[in-house]
Amino acid sequence: MAKKYLNIYSEIANKIENGEFKPNMKLSSENELMKEYGVSRDTVRKALNLLEQYGYIQKIRGKGSYVLDVNKFDFPVSGLISFKELSKKIGMKTNTILEVLELIKPDEYLMKQLKISENNQIWKVVRTREIGDKRIILDKDYFNKKYIPSLTKEICEDSIFNYIENELGLKISFARKEITVQQATKEDKKYLDLENYNMVVVVKNYTYLDDASLFQYGESRHRPDRFKFVDFARRRTLYPNG
Question: Of 83, 100, 177, 230, which has the most beta carbons under 10 Å away?
């Protein structure tokens, strides 16, 4: 027999998934749920913790539990796709806001990421991405000026990848990616509509040309409730006889 908290979890999760409970709706209080289901506070809290763990609700201290939007946007992990290309797939109103565009000398951290010396110059590009009037992605990109001699506001607000491939005639080949969950920084809070979230999903990108030249290091910082990161995997047997 299923534990009571799992039954409560399943019932509420189903109501969220089928739209009976709308995004941003406040759930019944713990006391109300205890009466409704005839269970203890501990059982209710286990159900709510599971709902939060799987992204159905956000618990806010002193305020209660709120329903999250479970209709998340697919963000491909393995592919190399620009935000402009992603926007076409999403099918919603999107906008790119250029926050910073400057030519800088790299600090020690950026020298390490781009594998360059202090004599190199790099383009620093910070852009906020809006989807449905909410600023939910902060892109911080650094381009080696050796490969990208110039950038403009128009290029950055359109598609830098498109400019690199179609104007500069370079071929973008592959990228190495790292995905982590981090505490939101002051910069995240400044540029993003984080609402009550204090964590962001960070995708670090190291992007290479077809001659294996590393030309870009970037951090794409996402509000955690609006994306699911997807990939396709095919099984390979490393040890056929094992």
Answer: 83
